[in-house]
Amino acid sequence: MMFDPIKILEKYSNSQKKALKILLHHGRLVKNKALEIAEHFTLDKIDLKFIEEAAILHDIGIFFVNAPEIGCYGDKPYIAHGYLGREVLEKEGLPKHALAAERHTGMGIHKEEIISNTQSNLGRKNTLLCG
What is the pLDDT of residue 117? Predict the structure, then answer.
């Protein structure tokens, strides 16, 4: 399936220009780092195109969170951007990319915070968070 990850980001940015600018910059940094790491693997079937696309799209859920400091004016807590991104990317027909968005969050989150966070779906799944 051919698609342009940047067009997908633009589609969901809801005119949040500051957030889109930050996200594009961050996505490119993540993409470059991910591709650099992938170079060290000798597996026959590393999907570099997927790595590139997923790196750019992994934070798409931020457009729905309340984080004015980065230009996001949604109504969800920031921690929810992973599962929100999964929902968006599933809707776009990108199930593997959706899993990358959902699973990249978790650094610095305590188990108690996840369980008590009634504003998100984080406590509704068994999720192993490593940090």
Answer: 61
